[in-house]
């Protein structure tokens, strides 16, 4: 019964050809896969496959170049914005984006991130925030929430000892070089659509030379948080999004929050 | 109002059985299989074939991009 409608003319959704057929190494339910696909769908819809250069980070998404069917360059830990700066300056007509996690962008690469944003390099920065170091086994990250238990904070994050969770998107939004900054999630289909809209605008603006476009995506890390994927998404909605509030922070060079 | 009938095709060897599609499916069409794939995961299947409307919510959220969605107008 259902088999006869599975024909090409009835197709409404299919994985984009800009993602390779390689099986992703991410844990079941990891937001990285959804974010990879949202980004590649936008690049595909805009027809920019042959004009795009992506910079892969170090962290869980270190193998992003295996999954994205575009030109990719691997960078040293945290240095993706510096590599992106060089590529964009040498090839100004290309779309250059960095794809980084919170350990890469907000910890070891904070200096590169801030100075790249301050110079207003015409790139798109995709920042995946899962509030933990996923790849190395769930240690505390700068973005770990207050009281959150991790491998290196077994009694919960003590803000008096290690400081407050870093809202890096709000921080870079203050810089004059940043054209837009916003925070999104990927835990519902509507949120994925919103993210795609923001990525499209970021690509258009960075290609038009308006400045750095910064898109943060809050994602769940069910392995690191020790939860099932569905519970992790629920926990994220209840706790992470309370501190890291989704929405636009800077639009067209003007702070809105 | 025209009614739509949908169907999903899951690449069961690539599915990791996270269950996110099952949790967000608005018509509760998707469930998990009893059998496992080559990697030992229970994969997503249609448990209620009649209720699928082809909204493609599952396809958009699937972290591994294993769901293909079809939709046809019902006569």
Helices and strands in order:
The complex is a heterodimer of chains A (257) and B (75).
Chain A: E1 11-13, H1 31-45, E2 52-56, H2 64-67, E3 71-74, H3 80-90, E4 95-101, H4 102-108, H5 110-119, E5 124-129, H6 159-162, H7 168-173, E6 178-185, H8 189-207, E7 212-218, H9 222-225, H10 229-243, E8 247-251, E9 254-255
Parallel strand pairs in A: 2-3, 2-4, 4-5, 5-7, 6-7
Antiparallel strand pairs in A: 6-8, 8-9
Chain B: E1 4-10, H1 20-24, E2 30-36, E3 42-46, H2 57-61, E4 67-73
Antiparallel strand pairs in B: 1-4, 2-3
Structure description:
The complex is a heterodimer of chains A (257) and B (75). Chain A is 37% helix and 18% strand. With 257 residues, chain A is α/β, with parallel strands linked by helices. In chain A, strands 3-2-4-5-7-6-8-9 form an eight-stranded mixed beta sheet, with helices on both faces. In chain A, strand 8 (247-251) and strand 9 form a beta hairpin. Chain B has 75 residues and is mostly beta strands. Chain B has one domain (9-73): Alpha-Beta Plaits, CATH 3.30.70.20. Chain B contains two helices and four strands. Chain B has helices spanning 20-24, 57-61; strands at residues 4-10, 30-36, 42-46, 67-73. Chain B has a two-stranded antiparallel sheet. In chain B, a hairpin with a 5-residue loop joins strand 2 (30-36) and strand 3. The mean pLDDT of chain B is 93. Chains A and B meet through strand 1, helix 1, helix 8 and helix 10 of A and strand 1, helix 1, helix 2 and strand 4 of B.
Task: Give me a quick take on this structure.
The complex is a heterodimer of chains A (about 260) and B (about 80). With about 260 residues, chain A is an alpha/beta fold.
What is the global morphology of chain A? globular
Q: Quick one: CATH superfamily of chain A?
A: Thiamin diphosphate (ThDP)-binding fold, Pyr/PP domains
Q: List segments of chain B where confidence is low: pLDDT < 50 over at least 5 consecutive residues.
A: none
Topology pattern of chain B, helix = H, strand = E: EHEEHE
Strand content of chain A: 15-25%
Number of separate domains of chain A:
1
**Overall mean confidence score, pLDDT of chain B:** 93
What Rg of chain B, in angstroms, do the CA atoms define? 12 Å
CATH hierarchy class name of chain B? Alpha Beta
Backbone structural class of chain A: alpha/beta
Number of strands of chain A: 9
